[in-house]
Design goal:
Length: 447
C-alpha cells in the first residue's frame, strides 16, 4: 500500500472523530497524535509555497520620508512587563514603531509578510528582519496605507502604531520565554505583541480613559489575518470608552469550504483546506483564538482551532469591520490551491475560479446583511496589490468599486461610522465575469 493510501485510511476515521467530538473538553482538539502527524504532513505540502511568496518583500515601508511626510515612525521598546512574552522568532526583543498624534485616537497597522510553515522556512525567517529585530532601523515611514501622512488620510492625525512583523505567526501566537521556545525552537508571540501595544498605549498615553476615544486596527495579508483574529480582543481589552473599528486587507484565508484542486489526488478530501491549515497552524503558533468563536466551535462539536481562519471566524466578529478583499486572491490561487507543482500540469479550471469567487463573495455578502460588516470587494485577481489607501507607485488612479475607492470607504467608516457594502458589478466580455476579473484597475502598487 502506498503512503497516499495510508494517509487516506488514517484520515477517514478523522471525519467521524470530528462529528462525535461535541462531548470532548472544549479546549482539547479531538485528534490523536498520529492524526495530527498526518494533518501536519498534508498541511506542509499544501501550504509550503505560501511562506515564500514574492509579494512579501514589503515595499511599502521605507527608511526615507517623501516630501510632506517628514515625521518618521520611531522604534519604541515594549513595556518591561511584556519583554519576556513578545520576542521575535529568534528570541530578539520586539519593538513598536510609533508616531505620536492625537492621544485619544490610535491607528495601528499589522504588517504582513507570509508566515512560518515548515522547519526550513521558519529557521530561515528567523535569520532575516522578518524574524529578528537585530537589524531593525530606528525610524521608518509607511506612506501608502492607513499610517500615511497624506492630508486626505482620514486617520492622518491619529497616533500611529506600525507593528513590524517578526513572529511569522499571522499575529496569533502566544509563546513566552517561560512557555517557549515553541516549534523548531522559535518564539511565536504575535498576539502577545498586540497585547503589549495596547498596554503601552494605555500606560504611556492614558489611552482609553476618556470618552470618545477611537481605535482603528488594520493589516494586510498575514496582517489581515491578524486583524480578524485580534479585532474583538482589542475591543474588549480597550474597554467601553473606546470605539474600535477593524479593516482586514486581503485577510480572508480562506473563502468558505475551500478545497485545493489537487487535494483529492493526495487522497485527502475529508477536510477542507481551511480546516487543515487551521489545525496545523494554530497548534504550531499556540494561537490565541477569538473567544466567542471558540465557544461556538465547542457548541458545534468543531475543534476550536477552526477559528484561526477567516471564513469560520468572521461570523463571530462583533466589532464593526470593513473587509477589503478581491474576488480572486492570487496568492491563494497561484501558490496554494492551484499550484502547478502540486497538480502535475492540471489547470485551475473555470469551475474552480467561479466557485472561488462565489464562496468569497457569497459568504461575505450574506454576513454583511446580519452583522456590522462593510465590504470593499473588487473583481480583481491579485492579493494585496490594490488594497491600500494610496497609490504611490503608478500613473493609474485607484481601484474603484461601485463608484467608491477603498479610501472613500475607510473615510465613511472613520468619520461617519458608516459601513458601506461595495461589491463589484462590472461586466466581463460575454458573461465571463464569473471567472474573469473585470475591474479596470487592479494594481495600485500596494505591496
Ligand atoms: C514551490 O516551492 C518549491 C520549494 O519548496 C519550489 O521548488 C517551487 O519552485 C515553488 N513553486 C512555485 C510555483 O513557486
Ligand atoms: C489634521 O489636523 C490638521 C491641523 O489641525 C487639520 O487641518 C486637518 O483637517 C486634520 N485632518 C484630519 C483628517 O482630521
Ligand atoms: C460549507 O459547507 C457545509 C457543508 O456542505 C454547509 O453546510 C455550509 O453552509 C457551507 N458554508 C458556507 C459558508 O458556505
Amino acid at each position: 500500500m502506498n503512503s497516499r493510501m495510508n494517509l487516506l485510511l488514517l484520515l477517514l476515521p478523522l471525519c467521524f472523530g470530528i462529528a462525535s467530538s461535541a462531548a470532548i473538553a472544549p479546549d482539547t482538539p479531538s485528534f490523536t497524535a498520529s492524526e495530527l502527524d498526518d494533518i501536519e504532513t498534508t498541511a506542509v505540502l499544501l501550504l509550503k509555497n505560501w511562506s515564500t511568496h514574492p509579494s512579501f518583500d514589503s515595499p511599502a515601508i521605507t527608511t526615507e520620508g517623501s516630501a510632506g511626510s517628514s515625521v518618521p515612525l520611531k522604534k519604541t521598546a515594549v513595556p518591561e512587563a511584556f519583554a519576556q512574552s513578545t520576542m521575535c522568532l529568534d528570541g530578539s526583543p520586539f519593538y513598536f514603531y510609533i508616531r505620536e498624534g492625537d492621544p485619544t485616537k490610535v491607528a495601528l497597522f499589522l504588517q504582513g509578510g507570509g508566515l512560518c510553515i515548515e522547519r526550513k522556512d521558519c529557521e530561515h525567517r528567523a535569520t532575516t528582519s522578518q524574524g529578528s529585530s537585530e537589524d531593525w532601523e530606528e525610524e521608518l515611514y509607511e506612506e501608502n496605507n492607513i499610517l500615511s501622512q497624506d492630508p486626505s488620510n482620514p486617520l492622518r492625525n491619529y497616533t500611529h502604531v506600525f507593528m513590524r512583523y517578526c513572529s511569522g505567526d499571522t499575529w496569533t501566537g502566544t509563546n513566552t520565554l517561560e512557555s517557549g521556545p515553541g516549534r523548531f525552537s522559535l518564539y511565536f508571540s504575535g498576539h502577545n505583541q498586540v497585547a503589549a501595544a495596547l498596554s503601552h498605549l494605555q500606560t504611556s498615553l492614558d489611552f482609553g480613559s476618556s470618552p470618545d476615544s477611537h481605535f482603528f486596527l488594520s493589516g494586510a495579508s498575514a496582517g489581515g489575518i491578524g486583524t480578524n483574529n485580534n479585532c474583538d480582543f482589542v475591543a474588549s481589552t480597550l474597554g467601553p470608552l473606546v470605539s474600535v473599528k477593524c479593516s482586514p486587507q486581503a485577510g480572508l484565508f480562506f473563502p468558505s469550504n475551500t478545497t485545493a484542486l489537487w487535494q483529492s489526488r493526495m487522497g485527502i478530501s475529508s477536510l477542507t483546506t481551511n480546516q487543515i491549515a487551521s489545525i496545523y497552524l494554530s497548534r504550531m503558533f499556540a494561537a490565541s483564538l477569538d473567544v466567542s468563536c471558540a465557544a461556538a466551535a465547542s457548541r458545534n462539536g468543531d475543534p476550536q482551532s477552526y477559528c484561526w481562519e477567516g471564513s469560520y471566524l468572521t461570523p463571530h466578529i462583533s466589532t464593526p469591520t470593513l473587509v477589503a478583499q478581491n474576488f480572486w486572491d492570487q496568492l491563494q490561487i497561484d501558490n496554494i490551491l492551484c499550484l502547478q507543482d502540486n497538480l502535475d500540469r492540471a489547470k485551475c479550471t473555470k469551475e474552480f475560479l467561479s466557485d472561488f469567487k462565489a464562496h468569497t463573495v457569497g459568504q461575505l455578502t450574506s454576513l454583511s446583511a446580519s452583522q456590522p460588516l462593510g465590504l470593499f470587494l473588487p473583481s480583481c485577481f491579485t492579493h494585496t496589490g490594490n488594497l491600500c489607501l494610496f497609490n504611490n507607485g503608478g500613473d493609474e488612479g485607484p481601484t474603484v468599486v461601485g463608484g467608491t475607492t477603498y479610501l472613500d470607504s475607510v473615510r465613511a467608516f472613520v468619520e461617519e461610522g458608516e459601513l458601506t457594502s461595495k461589491v463589484d458589478e462590472c461586466e466581463g466580455e460575454g458573461g465571463d465575469e464569473e471567472y474573469v476579473p473585470c475591474n479596470q484597475v487592479c494594481d495600485m502598487h500596494c505591496g
